Amino acid sequence: MAQLVMTATLLPKLASLLSPEYSLHRAARGEIMFLKVEMESMQAALVKVSQAPIDQPPDVQVKLWAKEVRDLSHDLEDSVDKFMVRIRTDGLDKSHTFMGFIDRSLNLLTKAKIRHTILTDVRDIKSRVKEVSKRRETYKVDTVPARPTTTTTDSLRQLALYKKATELIGTEEKSNELVEMLRKGDEASAKQLKMVSVVGFGGLGKTTLANAVYQKLKGDFDCGAFVSVSFTPNIEKILKSLLHQLDKNWYHNINESNWGEAELITEIREYLRNKRYIIVIDDIWDKSAWKNIRCALIENECGSRVITTTRILDVAKEDGDVYEMKPLSITDSKILFYQIIFGKEYESPHKQLIEVSEKILMKCGGVPLAIITISSLLAEKHDSAHWSKVYRSMGTGLENNPDVNGMRRILYVSYYDLPAPLKICLLYLSLYPEDCIFKRKYLIWKWVGEGFIQPKQGESLYEVGEQYFDELINKSLIQTMNSKWYGGFGFSKKKASHCRVHDMVLDLITCLSQEENFMTTLGGHQYESLPVKVRRLSLHTSKQEDAKVLSTMNMSHVRSLTVFKKSFSLLPPLSSFPLLSALDLTNCKQVDDHHSMLICSMFHLRYLWLYGTYITEIPREIANLQLLQVLDIGETEIEELPSTFEQLCHLVYLRVNSWIRVPYGSKNLKSLQELKSVIVMSPSVLIDLSGLTELRCLDMKVIEWNKSFEEPFRRCLSGLINLQSLKVNGCHITEDPECGNLLLPGPQQLRRFIAPYCRASSVPRWMSSLSCLSYIVIMLNTLGEEDLHVLGCLPSLRHLNMDVCRHTPRQRQAWPVIGATGYPFRCLTELRYVQHAEVVFAPGAMQKLQILELHLGTPDTLHQSGYFDLGLENLSSLQQITIMLSFSKDRMGEMEAAEATLRKALDMNPNKPTLNKW
Fold first, then answer.
1. Is the pLDDT of residue 178 over 70?
2. CATH assignment of 418-518, given 1.10.1040.10, 3.40.720.10, 1.10.10.10, 3.30.1130.10?
3. N or C: which end of the chain has fewer CB within 10 A?
4. d(CA 510, CA 519)
C-alpha cells in the first residue's frame, strides 16, 4: 500500500517561518532552511512511493520509513504551530499607557525566549531528520518504479448520463424479475405480506434496482416508504423516517418527538394495520437491526410488500424470498463503459481500444461501480497505451473473488490517480458516517479551514476547493444528491448542493485513512487498535462504551475534531485538546456559553463551526483566535458580537444569525470572502460593507428600508469588485436616473442575484453591464418592455425566476412578444414566471429553454379569445413545462378548455415536452 503524502500543510508553514514577520536569528533560519529542503526531498520520495502500481506494493521497510517521515512531519508541524501562535498571541493588544510600555518591553524579552525555544526544537528534530535520511538511502526508497501520471480534466462532467446509465442499463430486466417475485402466488398468498431480499456485494446496484421497482409499483399501494439502515443504524431515526414517508402530513413533526423504539414500532403497526403498503429497507448489515425494524411491519391481509437489500446472505435469508443480484452482462457492461467514456451517441472505438477495454471489463466483473470508476478514469485520454497502463495497475480481484476486498482494488486505481491534495481531501470524507448527506459548500470550507487547499494565483481558496470537489465527482468518488428545486425558487442546480460518499468508496477511504493514521473515527468501522497519536478525530457515537475508549486516548496531538450531535457528552473537556485547529460542533445542543469561553483560549483554531449550538454570547476573548479563517455561528442564540471581533483579520468565511449585529467599523475584516445572513440596520453598514473588496458571496437582510438606503446600496455594489453571488432581502430596489445605469467599477464577476422578497419597480438597468450574470431571482411590481429588454440581452443568463406582484389587465395584442430579436434570451435554459404571465413566445424564441414554469392565475381577461395561446409550440428545446391554473370549482369547464389549448400547443412542439399541472 502506497503511503499518503503528509507534509502538505507543513511545507508552507516552514516557508512562512523564513519571512521577516518572525525575525528569526540567522542560526535558526539556517536550520529551518535545512529542514525545508530535507522535507521537500522526503515528500518527493513519498510521492514516488504513492505512485507505485497497486500490484507492486512498497516493501515493508519502505512503508515503515514512510510512517517515520509522517510522524516526524507531524511533530515538526506541532513545534512550528506552537511557535507561530506564541509569537502572535504574546503581541496582542497592548495599551499606550506606561504599563503598556512595560508590557511591550517584557513582550520583547518573551519573544526572544520563544525564538530560542524554536531553535532548540528545530535542532532536536534536525537530528531525527538526519537519521531518517540515512534510512532512506538504506531502503533505496527512490528506486521505487513510478507510475506515469495522467492529465486530469478541468471541468465537471455532466451527471445526467451517469445517472441514466446507473439507473437504466441492465435494470429493466432485473426489475421485471423482482416484480414477478413480488406478485407470484395464488389468490390467497397474494393477500399475505410478502418479502423479497436483494442480496449481493457492494457496487452491484442493489439500491438502484430496489428503487426502480419501488417507483414502478408504489402507485398500486395505499402508502409506501424507502429507508436506509447502513452499517451503524440509528433505529429510532429509521423508524421516524418510515413514519414521515408513510404520511408526511400527519407525521410532519415526528423528528421532534421523544418517542422511543417501542412507541415508534407500535405507532407504525397501528398505522399500517388496515393498509396495503410497499416498503423498501435498504442496506441491512446485521440481523439484530433487521429484527427490530421487522417488528414494525405488521402482517395484515392487504397484499403488502417489503423489499430489503443487503450484502450479507444470512441476513437475506431471515425472511421471505432471496433475489441474488447478478453483475451486468457483457453487453450491458460495454454499453455502460462506452457511454461514460464517449457519451450517449458513440461510434465503435478503435480496435486496439476494444481489445484493452474487454480486458478491463473482465476485471470489473460486471460491477457497475467498478465500471463507472474505471471508465471515468479513462475518459480523459483515448489512447491504447494509457488504457493498457491503467489495466496493468488494476491487479486482480473481482474476476476470482467477488467481495468487498476485490471491489477495493478497482477503486484503488481511481484513488491513486489523484494528485496529493485531492487524496487528502478524499480521505477527509472518512469523517462522515455511512449514508450521511453533506453540503458541498460546507465541506469545501472545511477543507479550507484544515489547510488542505493549495493556493493558486488569481483564485480564492474556495474556488480552488470547488475545483477539487468537481474533480472528485468527475472520478465518481463523490455522489451528488440532485434536487429539482433549489432554495424554494424552483430551479435545478448545475452543481448539486447535497452530496454523499458511496458505501464502497467510504469503505476504501476509511481503510486507507486508518492505515495512514489520517482520521480516527468512533462509532463506525471498528479498530483493532487505536493509534498512539490521534491527529484527527470524528465522533458519531452515543454509546457509553465509546466514552471509556475516549478516556484512554491522548488528545494532546489532535488537530481536528468533528462531533456529530449526541456524541459531545462523551468527550473529555475541550481543554484536553491544546493543538486543535479545526472544531466542528454542528447541532451539538450541549454546547453553551461555558464552552465558548474555553474555545476562545484555543489559539490554534483556524476553523470553528458552532452552527445550531446553545451559545448565547461570544466573549471579548474571541480576539485570541488570531488564526481563525472560517467561523459559523448561525442558528445560535447570539444577538451581538463584541467589538474585539474586528481583530479577526484572517477571517474568510462568516455565517451569523439574521438578527446579529456585526461590527464593520474596522478595516481588519477585509479578508472576508463569504458573509452570510448579515443584518443591515443603517446606510452606514452598507458603506462599511463596500470596503470588503474580497467578498465573493454576500447574503444580507436590510431592516426598515427607506430612500436613504438607495445611494449607499449602489455604492456598496460598486465597491464589491469580486462579488459573484448576492442575496438580498428587505429592500425595495429602485432606479435613480441621476445615478446612471452602470455600477462602476462594480461587481463585473457577479453570477447570481437573488432577491426573492425585495420588490423592484423595474429590472435595475445596471444589470445590463454585468456580462457574467447567469442566475436571477427577482420580484417586480410590473413587467414592462424595458424589463424584458434588459433581461433578454444579458449574454450569460441561464436561470430566471420572476414574480410579478401587480396585475394590470391589458389586451392580448399588447402583450410583449419574445422572439429571436428584441429579447433574445440566447442562453436561458430555465424560466419561472409567477403571477399572471402575459407574454407570447414567437418562432425562434428562447432557443435553449428546457424547463418552463408558468403561474397563469385566473385573469380578468380570461374571456379573451386565445388567452392561453402562448406560442409554446415555438420553444424548440423545451423538455418540461409546469403550469399552475387557479380556477374555482364553478369554472372547471374553462380550466379544461385552457388545458386543452396548452396541450394542443405542446403537441405541436417538435420536442414533445412533458406537462405538469399544479
1. yes
2. 1.10.10.10
3. C
4. 8
